[in-house]
Structures are given as structure tokens and as C-alpha cells.
Amino acid sequence: MIQHLHLVMHKIGLGLVALIAAGSFVYGQQTSLTSKNCNNTDPGNTPGDTGCVTFTYLGQSVTYTTVRGGDGKIWLQQNLGSSQVATDKADAASYGDLFQWGRWDDGHQLRNSVITAAPDENFPSGLAGNSSYVAGDPAWWAEFQGGDQWTASDLGNVTPGRGIDPCKAVGSGWQMPTQTEWEMIVGAENINNPATAYSSHLKLPASGYRSSGNGGFTFVGQRGYFWSSDTSTLGAKYLYVGTINANPSAGAPRGQGAAVRCIKSGPVLGISETIRTNTIGIYPNPTKNILYIKADSLIDSVNLFNMAGQKINIQFSDNQINMSGLPNGNYMVELKLKNGQRFSKKVIKN
Questions:
Q1: CATH class of 274-349
Q2: Is CB count within 10 Å lower at the N or C end of the chain?
């Protein structure tokens, strides 16, 4: 069977691309992305509740598990290209594919894809028909522009400054997470190393990364690298999960191959939905000066983030946050209770 497959591939000259419709790969071995019965039901309202979604990836129908995160959002519980939810931080079947930032499901993301030099038009609209991993000097999309995006929904919307968001293929509302969204889930799930990344509701594995210089693999089974849709001065931002910390604002060249984990857009669940056993109040919202926090359970910690995902230094005392000195705008309050429950809510300072 294997010999016959190799013979057919040789005759038709399609190489690796001929395998795209058959599934993904882990270190040169094909893994099955089996489609299971799924009614596309979203997870319940409690963090950790799971659902499922069926979509087309690598030319075939696949079904992935979805999960309600501690941030109240719905996430895929597996990396794109994986064959299962992680059973361990070093579960190779859960690693999935490694995308170059701004690229889409064209085959380049496979872990044994062919490596090629950068095309003359080294940006998204110059990649028609190219399924290779671009490595070397210059690397992929090396001319950095801060306004570049990874948000296009299909080939018709690709421009020199905008690539296709591979998460759009999952279905309506699905997208690449922003840096802020990574910041929120890292705080809500207390992710600070590969062990806690795996034990989180998202089950993030240590899938490593692929070099933009030579296409080699680094820290596979040891550290995690997950793209966001935002750019950085180095090229693009990603969630880095290292041995002693998790950094949602890390930056890397866009030619680096990193994992993709998708999020479903929409508002964070309200208080009554995320915490059923406690009465919690955060008011007034909007506020001009003092923000009051009320909870039936003892409060362990309170953090405040701006919409860029940056943690704001605050003083929390007598169940109050003084926001009078902060610029007007939107903020995210992250609350942890002594009983272990977590809650996050957007507040407005005006």
C-alpha cells in the first residue's frame, strides 16, 4: 500500500501536496484527522464545558473539540492540524501544524513540508500555488509593516499587507486570537509554564516552533509557541510558554512556524453565567473614579488590564479600585476568589 502510494505520487509529480487531502503529519508520519459525529454545539457556560465543531481542513472534513475557557470565551481545545486534544504536554498527536504568520491552509504548515527560498513577491499575494515552507534569508514576509494583518477570510481578500486567517475556515465567528485575548486567558487560567498550559481548560501542548532560517524544529515537547493576529517590532506576536513563565506579548519573525489555536469572537459571559454559586458585583460601569467590587466569597486577587493586554498597576483596598488617574477607555477586570473561581469583566472608564 505504502509502496503503491509512493509510486503514484512519483508518477503524477505532486510530492507532498498529494498528501494534503489525506491529513496532517507528526515528524513525517501521517496522522488521521478523523471526522466524528458532531452537531456543532457550543460548550456550556461553565469554564471547562466542551462542545464540538466540524469544518474543512487540509481538504477533508474534520471535527474538533471546543471548550469554554476561564475567560468566558469559546476556544478550540486543539491546535489546527492536530488529531486529538492533548493527553500530555508532550503528546505529539496534539501538536498540530506550524504556520508562518499570515499564511493559510496551503500545505506549508505541515511539519514535513518542503522548504523553499522566498519568492520574488515575498508577501501574501505572491504565494499563489506555493505550498512550501519559506526559509532562509530573506525569510517569509521579511519587510515588516506595523499595519500588516492576518485577518483575510479568503484568497479574494489577500493583499500584500494582509494574509488569510486560517481560523476563518472553522466557521462563523472564529478567528485568530489577539494578544489581548491571549493575555486574558493566561491570567484567567493561571498559565505560567508548559505543565499549567496543559492542565488549563485549553490543554495547550508544548508543540515547539520551526525556524525561519533553516526550517528546523526547536523546543518540541518542551515549550509552546502560539500565534496571535497582532504584529510586533520583530514581525508578529505570539504566546510563549516557557519553563518559568508565559508571555502573551512575545515577538518573533513572521517566517517562524508556530501553532495556531482559534477563538470564537463574541462577548465574555456575564456574571450570572460564569459564576453561579456566588453573587458578584462590579459597579458602577461605566465609572469615572471608584470601581466597587462585591463578592459573597473572599477575594484572593484583582488585576486590571488595558485593551492592549498590559497589566495596570492598581491598589485594591476596601473592595475598591481607584481609576481616577487612568485614561478614559475600556479595561478588563480579572477577579480570583478564594474558592478558586475566576471571573473577568470589561469595564469602561469615562
A1: mainly beta
A2: N
Alpha-carbon span 254 to 142, nearest angstrom: 7
Query: Can you tell me the distance from the alpha carbon of 216 to that of 55, in angstroms, rounded to the nearest whole number?
Result: 30
Alpha carbon distance 73, 183 (integer Å): 13
Q: Do 335 and 302 form a contact (C-beta atoms < 8 A)? A: yes
DSSP string, 323-334: -TTSPSEEEEEE
The amino acid present at 242, given as its one-letter code, is: G
Which pLDDT score, from 0 to 100, does residue 308 have? 61
Cis peptide before 138 (omega within 30 of 0): yes
Rounded mean pLDDT, 14-35? 39
Q: How far apart are CA 306 and CA 240, in angstroms?
A: 20
pTM beyond cutoff 0.90: no
The one-letter code for the residue type at 98 is L
Burial of 196 (0-12, 13-18, 19+ CB in 10 A): middle
H-run or E-run covering 116: strand 115-116
Residues 6+ apart with CB under 8 A from 257: 98, 99, 100, 109, 133, 209, 210, 211, 212, 215
- Which part of the chain has CATH 2.60.40.760? 274-349
- Residue 187 grid cell: 491570567
Residue 186: C-alpha distances to residues 88, 110, 193, 219, 222 (Å): 18, 27, 10, 20, 18
Site of grid cell 526547536? 218
* C-beta separation of 210 from 133 below 8 A: yes
Task: Report the candidate in 208, 209, 194, 197 with the shortest Cα–Cα distance to residue 242.
Answer: 194
Model confidence pLDDT, tens digit, residues 120-169: 999 999 998 899 999 999 999 998 888 999 999 999 999 999 999 999 99
